[in-house]
Amino acid sequence: MIDSLLNALSGLMLAAGCFFMVSGAVGLVRFPDFYTRMHAAGVTDTLATFLIVGALMLLAGWSLALFKLGLILLFIFFTSPTASHALAKAAQHSELRLEQPGRPATAQAGQAARNAAEPALEADTTNTGRD
Amino acid sequence: MLAATVISLLVVMGLALARALLGPTIYDRILAVNVFGTKTVLLIAVICFTVGKPEFLDIALVYALINFVSVVGVLRYFEYRSRMGDTAHD
User: How far is CA A56 from CA A14, A32, A126, A127, B47, in A?
Assistant: First the structure.
């Protein structure tokens, strides 16, 4: 009884994990720019991993495999958001910088704005270009 | 359900590989490689339950460690390179 219940629950979690994983991958391929792609990939990555490894833990029962799966889950749970954060920070420091008011989106756009701007605006934008 | 999970993991890894091949910037490629590595860990874990060999979980654990370190290392490299004045478009 409890065995079939665990099997059904793990099948359900595997199905949900597959759904989130595939939707994240479709977003990774189809979305138009880097930050939207990172949203699709980074958010679904953690949840799909949690669901699939949790389903495997239900299948494993009380054994050494359960402990190892727990270690994998814990590790991915900490490193996946950290990798996403490092990636977003590196992209923000490059010319992929997000567009903000008074802050050029790309290095080329910043140069063009500096060339075209009046002196007042120029004083605003001079120290907001690339570091 | 385990077989279906293996198939969908392979599909997701193929899509991530496609993004890694045609991503316009280096950061798209790093993101796709990160997704690919995480899905590889999951694939090894699911395969070890499909064939019934729990020893394979050690490989998955080591792969998870290597994946994180390699992504952060490559990221550091390109972050410093883009600060030196090169572009992120390779």
Answer: 8, 34, 55, 52, 11
Angle between helices A64-93 and B56-83 (to 10 degrees): 10
Query: Among partner residues A41, A53, A90, which is closest to B79 by beta-carbon distance?
Result: A90
Asked whether residue A68 falls in the same domain as residue A120, the answer is no
B8 touches chain A (CB under 8 A): yes
CA distance A123 to chain B (A): 23
CB pairs under 8 A between A and B: 138
Domain residue limits at A53 = 2-93
ipTM of the complex: 0.83
**Nearest partner of B59 among A72, A59, A62, A58, judged by Cα:** A72
If asked whether residues A125 and A76 sit together in one domain, one would say no
The tens digit of pLDDT for each residue in A30-72 reads 998 888 999 998 888 889 999 999 999 999 888 898 999 999 9
